[in-house]
Amino acid sequence: MIRALIFDFDGLILDTEGPIYQSWAEVYAAHGVDLPFELWVKTVGSSNDAFHPQFHLEERIGSKLPQEVIDRRIERRVELVLAQPLLAGVADHVASAAAMGLRLGVASSSSREWVSGHLERLGLLAPFQCLRCRDDVEHVKPEPDLYLAVLDCLGVKADEAVAIEDSPNGIMAAKRAGLRCVAVPNPLTAGLDLSGADVRLGSLADGTLSELLQQVSAST
Ligand SMILES: [Mg+2]
């Protein structure tokens, strides 16, 4: 029986992935360097441990980026993220889950400040009983720590929860924690290998939550 729904944040609730990529791609372009997408995707759903865009660019141009360039990149990221609407179907699924009595959590490799700040701004913080972010665990995704921490907080077992993710790193984290997983890619992750998920949707607006849970149950 499914008792909980656990959402990823970046690229799933809000399309922050496009803006973060774009903010760096603009800095790279200003220095005449291409931002290699195949290296970039290692960071998506995870951290900069596998690929650090600033250090990579500094190595390519043979000098340190001035602090004002780094600060301006962060401002540009914020500007682009704030222009993003809540992704389609998210609010409906959260409301349906609450109405169905499901427990709700967020598992995110980003900081708690980033996740709770945006959720609050979007009026979507209150429905989630548990948020677990990079501040709370030793290892972010693709390790299972974040999902295990949310399961523990919600008081449900792995086979009672469904994860919703947009990236290969997120899907891997959910599967390693023993959850069933629904992939809902955004333009940046749609071309990546999401085959680890049990169900793949084009958008959360493709159908109702009841239909999605039936699909998940039928897939396993
Ligand atoms: Mg994500």
Q: Can you describe what's shown?
A:
The structure is a single chain. With 220 residues, the protein is of the alpha/beta class. The protein has nine helices and six strands; from the N terminus they run E-H-H-H-H-H-E-H-E-H-E-H-E-E-H. It folds into two domains: 4-15 and 86-219, HAD superfamily/HAD-like (Rossmann fold); 17-82. Helices cover 42% and strands 10% of the residues. It has a six-stranded parallel beta sheet, with helices on both faces. Helix 6 links the parallel strand 2 and strand 3 (130-132). It starts with a strand and ends with a helix. The model has no long low-confidence stretch (mean pLDDT 96). Residues 8, 10-12, 45, 166-167, 170 line the site of magnesium ion.
CATH superfamily of the largest domain: HAD superfamily/HAD-like
What percent of the residues sit in helical stretches (DSSP H or I)?
40-55%
CATH topology of the largest domain: Rossmann fold
What is the β-strand count? 6
Question: What about the largest sheet?
Answer: 6 strands, parallel
How much of the polypeptide forms β-strand, as a percent range? 5-15%
State the order of secondary-structure elements, H for helix, E for strand.
EHHHHHEHEHEHEEH
Shape: elongated
Radius of gyration: 17 Å
**What is the spatial order of strands in the main beta sheet?**
3-2-1-4-5-6
**Main CATH class of the largest domain:** Alpha Beta
> What ranges have pLDDT less than 50 throughout 5 or more consecutive residues?
none
Number of helices: 9
